[in-house]
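Structure (tokenized):
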């Protein structure tokens, strides 16, 4: 068979368009392979990134769950502390006059429920430089009583962690008291001065050496303040002479130690309230009652956790609700004493508002006791003109202008006018 078209010289010469077609086809094939390879590696990289993100997400999720769990545990523990504090106060209030033994037993019961490691609790009452103690050891229901021993030679020195500044020979007295204790202990102590440096109460808590509980010191300090109040109340109910100065001033001192932001505030409020009493022409007896009511208007804050009182920023809604309870608690604390019950209602209602939107009972207008209305004005003014952690204090003029806006809503308009006439 003759196939000349295949073997002729002309037959092997391809047209240029045909060559161009195959070149383009080859380039497209190469590009297609390159795209496929690129997409493969891109998908592979995306899968690796997805795996890494998934691992990171899981890690962050686990960390968040751990943090939330830890935060929840902490909040639950703080709630337990707060409930314990309220129970301690309720126990003291409901049981009237209590001996040092009753106080220490209840203090030990409350603390050991939260801190099972607690080994020893003692309350040392110092009068005129001499100390006597009442104590309770773990595992033993009986109390230990006596005077502070005076060892001839102190062979060891136990480390004591103080919850606040100490005065005089407090540390030396405690070392005398702790003489005979083992070295492997952790000791927390809290000194609360009453009406002089020689009259004070010292609380002692003994734990194992490696014990460092979170929030322990603030919680123990708050219990100490509540306990010291009832110790103070009992002491001065026995000695009834000049109870106002002898009982109320130490109460204010205790509160100022507990809440540093309140230092001098009670005296200022009492002074401003006295200006209103002068303007109203109250009689001498009413002026005295108003003065002492103003001095102790914030006494209920000894029931508020110190972590809230000493917070440097703004309060959360939950913290603010707890803080608001101080007015009610202050009234309850004072009503527990027959001698102070006549001023309890003035303290309870000093955060009521003229329009009925205050607390704790939502009283309005003249339903609010006169002295409570006066204290509310004096309290607000002093808060306005003094610095707080989250704001600077106003000038006197700025404070008065701000309070004028609140006339007839927050404040009794007549009493506010009397106050402004006296203060400006």
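Design, position by position:
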């Amino acid at each position: 068979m003759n196939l000349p078209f295949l073997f002729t010289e002309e037959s092997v010469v391809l047209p240029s368009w045909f060559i161009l077609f195959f070149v383009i086809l080859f380039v497209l094939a190469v590009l297609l392979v390159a795209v496929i390879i690129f997409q493969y590696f891109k998908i592979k990289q995306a899968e690796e990134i997805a795996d890494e993100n998934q691992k990171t997400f899981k890690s962050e999720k686990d960390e968040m769950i751990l943090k939330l769990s830890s935060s929840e545990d902490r909040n639950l523990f703080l709630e337990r502390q707060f409930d314990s504090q309220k129970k301690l106060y309720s126990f003291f209030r409901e049981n009237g006059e209590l001996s040092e033994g009753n106080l220490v037993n209840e203090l030990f019961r409350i603390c050991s429920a939260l801190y099972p490691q607690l080994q020893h609790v003692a309350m040392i009452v110092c009068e005129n430089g001499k100390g006597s103690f009442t104590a309770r050891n773990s595992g033993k229901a009986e109390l230990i009583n006596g005077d502070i021993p005076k060892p001839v030679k102190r062979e060891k020195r136990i480390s004591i962690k103080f919850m606040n500044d100490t005065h005089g020979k407090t540390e030396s007295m405690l070392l005398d008291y702790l003489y005979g204790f083992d070295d492997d202990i952790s000791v927390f102590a809290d000194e609360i001065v009453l009406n002089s440096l020689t009259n004070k109460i010292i609380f002692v808590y003994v734990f194992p050496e490696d014990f460092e509980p979170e929030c322990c010191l603030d919680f123990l300090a708050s219990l100490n303040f509540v306990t010291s109040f009832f110790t103070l109340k009992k002491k001065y109910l026995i000695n009834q002479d000049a109870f106002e100065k002898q009982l109320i001033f130490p109460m204010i001192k205790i509160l100022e130690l507990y809440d540093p932001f309140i230092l001098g505030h009670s005296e200022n409020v009492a002074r401003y309230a006295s200006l209103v009493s002068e303007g109203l022409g109250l009689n001498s007896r009413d002026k005295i009652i108003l003065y002492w009511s103003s001095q102790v208007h914030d006494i209920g804050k000894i029931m508020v956790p110190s972590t809230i009182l000493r917070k440097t920023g703004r309060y959360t809604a939950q913290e603010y609700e707890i803080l608001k309870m101080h007015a009610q608690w202050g009234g309850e604390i004072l009503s527990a004493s027959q001698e102070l019950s006549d001023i309890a209602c003035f303290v309870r209602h000093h955060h009521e508002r003229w329009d009925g939107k205050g607390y704790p009972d939502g009283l309005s207008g003249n339903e609010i006791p006169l002295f409570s209305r006066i204290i509310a004005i004096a309290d607000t003014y002093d808060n306005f003109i003094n610095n707080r952690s989250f704001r600077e204090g106003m000038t006197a003029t700025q404070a008065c202008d701000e309070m004028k806006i609140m006339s007839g809503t927050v404040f009794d308009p007549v009493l506010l006018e009397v106050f402004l006439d006296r203060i400006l």
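Reviewer-requested clarification: DSSP finds 15 helices and six strands in the chain. The longest helix spans residues 16-94.
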